[in-house]
Amino acid sequence: MELGPYILLASIEGSVTAAVLALTAVGLSLVFGVMRVVNIAHGEFFMLGAVIAWFVAQALGAHPAVGFAAALIVAPLVVGAIAVAADVTILKRIDYDPERTIVATIGLLYIIQQLTLMGYGPDARPVEAPFNSRLAIPWWEWKDGALQMYWPWGLATTSYKLAVIGAAALVLLGVWAFMTHTRAGLLMRATQQDREMALAFGIPVERVYALVFGIGAGLAALAAVLIVPISQAHYLMGADPLLLSFIVVIIGGLGSLPGTVVAAILIGLSDGIVSVFFSPTLAKILATLLVALVLVFRPGGLFGTRQA
Amino acid sequence: MLELQGVGSGYGRAQVLRDLDLRVDAGEILCLLGRNGAGKTTVMQTIMGLLLLMTGRITLDGADIGALPAHMIPRAGIGYIPQGRRLFPGLTVAQNLAVGMQTRNSPPEVLDEVLALFPRLRERMGQRAQTLSGGEQQMLATARALCLRPKVLLLDEPTEGLQPSMIEAIREVIVEMRDRGVAVLLVEQRIDAVLSIADRVAFIENGRNGETLPAAALQADRAIVDRYVGV
Q: Do A203 and B99 touch (CB under 8 A)?
């Protein structure tokens, strides 16, 4: 068989990674952009989303679609509420100081992780996908003077994976519309650009921060609910999304949402393709190398602006 | 209208203002004069709640606003035009004005009134603030503050770095606001420009009160001005 079908398959796998990564990283980028907080606990919010999805699906026990649909709503809301509580009780008290918030979110990471281990246990558990039919992928080949379609053996994906890509794209469009077309989005962007002037124009900055921290965590949780039917829920699953999100956010430009999405697509696709043809480890090495190159040649990221 | 009584304030542990008294009434322009580092900008930032009020009281129409959270102070009716304009650079002109409009939920006709004062901004509504010229940025900073229908307007060096025609336009707006009954507290380095529009001038020296005199008296006797701001 030709190389083309394999590249197509790898690209679809990469697109699933990119979609979930974009959702997770946009949450991290939003928090950094508006609050200037480097949230080391972001991966744990992702993990919590997956674990809560498992609990919700178990509790409902009905058709997988019912449990999954409920998890899609419940997990981001619960994780968002936990993040808001963490903001009010921890980050606000240390006045959002950039250095101290790093230490505080490291502490938050371990608290969430260990509490999950105590309550959920060390096992990896799956959440059943609401639908998961196999979809064969066609390919075209020039044969006997004409382009002919055929179905290469083993070239297939699932309807659920395509749905993950579509759902993530829809949510990202929603985030963009929220930030650019709503009053709350305007106030968030104003706060991002000048915190003091935001206060001088009546914007309740601390409430904006709590909302942003909640939305950022909620997006990570939503990404986890989408991926948990493919990758299972485990109390240590937050490390990889955190690392990849940081890679994406640095490449895209700290605080730049469009840059984050473009970088997520770039990293996700390369991860998918390199993992299929070579190895997942090599994919991570290349991503890390790309970060190093960006930091050397374009420290603000591909879409970032220099900070004064 | 706006009154500061025994105000002490500063940055962190460094106290800049000490036992400062000021009063600016409705329909009055009070100009704050002093050397660089005397504490003029600190006065503005303390009124806006951006710096910690260490001692004293700040009242607006008799109500204590010194203890309010910073975001509640503009909602009480104080508009601030900071030194250096401090626009939201990535937002458009329309969005910068929208931020001003939401502060006190101003009705849409307020925006029309403000744009009537700055017709050039109407042509730039979709343009990002950072791409405006210096004069247009100052117009936008002023318009943004007027959008909240202020009872008190704080202006920190509004004509800094502007060409003469733009200075005149800003000056006319300040006088217009005073005539509409707004209390104006103005920090300005250009002494002649100040004396031509101010009703009273308050001198500040090392964060403490100097004399407060009618502007007309200073026009007659420039020696006092030289004593406080001369080099």
A: yes
CATH number, domain of A190, equals 1.10.3470
Domain boundary among B123, B145, B167: B145
Within an 8 Å CB–CB cutoff, is residue A184 touching chain B? no
ipTM for the whole complex: 0.92
The answer to whether A30 and A212 have CB atoms below 8 angstroms apart is: yes
Across A193-205, b (16+ Cβ under 10 Å) vs e yields: bbbebbbbbbbbb
Q: Measured between alpha carbons, how far is B74 from B53 in angstroms, rounded to an integer?
A: 16
The H-or-E segment that residue A114 falls in is: helix A98-120
Please count the CA atoms within 13 angstroms of the CA of A40 that sit on its side-chain side.
16
| Minimum Cα–Cα distance from B80: chain A residue | A200
The number of distinct structural domains making up chain A is 1
| A interface test, pick of B41, B45, B99 with most A CB neighbours within 10 Å | B99
Token pair belonging to B225: 């001005």
CB contact under 8 A, A194 and B74: no
Token pair 């102070």 in the structure block, residue:
B73
What is the pTM for the complete model shown? 0.90
Shortest Cα distance from B131 to chain A (angstroms)? 15
| B218 to chain A, closest Cα gap in Å | 33
Interface contact A200-B90, CB threshold 8 A? no
B132 and B51 in one domain?
no
DSSP state of B156: E
Q: Are residues B158 and B209 in the same domain?
A: yes
Higher pLDDT, B231 or A176: A176
Identify whether B154 is part of a domain: yes
**What is residue A169's three-state secondary structure?**
helix
In a domain, A305, yes or no: no
CA distance A199 to B69: 9
Q: Determine, yes or no, domain membership for B84.
A: no
Residue A196 forms contact with B (CB below 8 Å): yes
Residue B82 lies in a domain: no
Same domain, B28 and B59: yes
Res. A240: pLDDT tops 50? yes
pLDDT of res. A307? 47
Domain enclosing residue A281, as ranges: 4-129+155-297
Q: How far apart are CA A134 and CA A298, in angstroms?
A: 43
* A29 and A257 Cβ atoms separated by less than 8 Å: yes
